[in-house]
Amino acid sequence: MDLQTTIYLIVGASFALYIGIAIWARAGSTSEFYSAGGSVHPVLNGMATGADWMSAASFISMAGLIANMGYGGGLFLMGWTGGYVLLAMLLAPYLRKFGKFTVPQFIGDRFYSKGAAMIAVICLLTASLTYIIGQMTGVGVAFSRFLGVSSEVGIYVGMGIVFLYAVFGGMKGITYTQVAQYLVLIFAYTIPAIFISLQLTGNFLPQLGLGGTMSGTDMTLLAKLDSVVTDLGFGKYTTTTAGSTLNMFMYTLSLMIGTAGLPHVIMRFFTVPTVKDARSSAGWALVFIAILYTTAPAVAAMAKLNLHSTVNTAVVQGGDLYAPEASIKAEERPDWMKRWEKTGLLKFEDKNGDGRIQYYNDATKNEAAKAKADAAGWKGNELTVNADIIVLANPEIALLPNWVIGLVAAGGLAAALSTAAGLLMAISAAVSHDLIKNIFVPDISEKGELLAGKVAMAVAIVISGWLGLNPPGFAAGTVALAFGIAASSLFPAIMMGIFSKKMNKEGAMAGMLAGLFVTLFYVFAHKGIFFIKGTDFLPLIGGANPFFGITPEAFGAVGALVNFAVAFLVDKVTAEPPEHIQHMVEAVRVPRGSKLVDGAH
Q1: DSSP for residue 356
Q2: Between 511 and which of 310, 485, 563, 598 could a Cys-Cys bridge form, CB atoms 3.0 to 4.6 Å apart?
Q3: Cα–Cα–Cα angle for 335, 352, 390, rounded to 5 degrees
Q4: How far is CA 297 from each of CA 6, 61, 104, 236, 587, rounded to the nearest angstrom?
Q5: 206 alpha carbon, distance to own chain's centre
Q6: What is the distance between the alpha carbons of residues 498 and 94, in angstroms, rounded to a whole number?
Q7: Degrees (nearest 5) of the Cα angle 134, 494, 288?
Q8: Which residues are CB-contacts of 484 (< 8 A; sequence separation ≥ 6)?
Q9: How far apart, in whole angstroms, are the C-alpha atoms of residue 279 and residue 89?
Q10: Where are the domains of the chain?
């Protein structure tokens, strides 16, 4: 069976599975629509949380980022995983005990203010819509390569699939669909990694293969990779960092607290029966997430080495990488490169007209590498590889069987669609439950609220699809912006709501607005969104990365600090919360078994 037919069958079977589950588990009440009736088993909820958590950014982009950045890419592993631990330990059990469906509802009730709930809704919608652009982009990338259609058509198909199982199934349908999507994406990620680890090191565990010795040599895989990339002018793979130490720390912190503040994952902990089950499902989710996250560094390193081995053929023999015959002839480049060239995510340009592909860092500060490139007659790097194709192209680069390539296609789509569904659920709940039910039409019937939720989700799908088709000018930073918004606005409010009984509504509202404004200003200004008579706005704030060299992607942590500072300053000059609110906060933190609370709500 040819590759394209195999991909159609595997991806088609996965879509049929998702739609079948949605029909079986369709929501019949608001409780089922928002929280799956609170009846999901902790292990299943752990799988669903893992799928919700591991978006297209985790499945498609993370290994590519690590492959490009090397050691510095570890900040994504530390930030995203650390954020999950923070959420599981400090937020999820207390929010589950509070017993509300959504984050804005918690903030509105805790800070006894519809205004606070409104601000939380605005923050949630902004973060979720920017985050979903990345998911739709991931769907477009996967479809354009594997199904032979344009990315635009791919986004339309993705919108249709999500509509079928999210709008009709609600949280109940999404939960059980995400369980299936987790199984698809984890097998799609680990099976190719096992194959490639066996090829390169003889070790079937990629985590051990990463530090293992390469087959037929006495050199470790990482030592070989370091040798290759440094000889070609790239930074040393095992030591290169992302900017300054301060920026790397703030970047990691921003990802961590932004991750903990993203509402679509927090909602998952309302789908289990009790607080104990919420803690248990958090633990199971961490296990399921760790399978992919501990595999990602190995996937990144092995894919990078295989890519260099394909283009710079002397890598295999250990010869001179700059010798005339050491790079592949353009006309002999493998079929997988030609297929990816059609997507525009891999580009080749023969700059020196020698008919071969030179893949190196032409902007290197390594004088020895520069001298070798000049002596060989190289006129610049001729191969551009988008980081997002590393995982999807990995089995093709390694010449794995067609069914493995098809499985990876299904996995990439599962990762993007599962997170998109979770984000859409958060958006739907914010509009129908937090705005319509709790603020504008409090006497709406359950049937009316359920209809409003479905309509809100359908509208959100259309808007998110449009954003995916017409990404804004700052699209490259949309995922970082989503984390920054959640970190600077929602996370501090949730933390103070749980752990500071004296924090009042004025402080919380002022903090959320201040953190959100500072972060948006810094990110948009850096991206050149603001213009004055055609002049970039950046000079007015001191040039690129003016705040101690911190990049916009890392600025969410600064926004969070601003949020906390403003909240506590305003709190000091305004009235304390009512007594019943302070008692409620204390009750939420009372340990189970104290008999002061039943622990189930």
Answers
A1: B
A2: 563
A3: 35
A4: 28, 12, 36, 15, 43
A5: 22
A6: 7
A7: 55
A8: 254, 258, 519, 523, 552, 553, 555, 556, 559
A9: 8
A10: 3-304+397-466, 309-386
3-state SS track over 433-470:
HHHHHHHHCCCCCHHHHHHHHHHHHHHHHHHHHHHHHC
What is the largest distance, in Å, between two alpha-carbon atoms of the chain?
79
Q: What per-residue confidence (pLDDT) applies to 282?
A: 87
Query: Residue 32 carries which side chain, given as an amino acid letter?
Result: E
- Beta strands at 531-532 and 346-348: parallel, antiparallel or unpaired: unpaired
Token representation of residue 385: 């590889």
pTM for this entry: 0.86
How buried is 218 (Cβ within 10 angstroms: 0-12 exposed, 13-18 middle, 19+ buried)? exposed
pLDDT of residue 477: 53
* Neighbour-count burial of 133, counting CB atoms closer than 10 A to its CB (0-12 exposed, 13-18 middle, 19+ buried): buried
- The pLDDT of residue 313: 87
How far apart, in whole angstroms, are the C-alpha atoms of residue 56 and residue 37?
28
DSSP state of 61: I
pLDDT digit string, tens, across residues 410-456: 998 888 888 888 888 888 889 988 999 988 999 999 889 888 988 98
d(CA 568, CA 503): 7
Q: Which residues of the chain have pLDDT under 70?
A: 242, 472-480, 526-544, 546, 591-601
Residue 543 is predicted with a pLDDT of 55
Quick: pLDDT tens for 113-138: 999 999 999 999 988 888 888 778 77
Q: Quote the pLDDT of residue 496.
A: 96
What's residue 514's pLDDT? 98
Instruction: Determine the length of the chain.
Output: 601
CA distances from 126 to 329, 358, 362, 490 (A): 48, 43, 39, 11
Phi, psi for residue 385 in degrees, rounded to 5:
-120, 115
Looking at domain 3-304+397-466, its CATH class is mainly alpha
SS3 148: coil
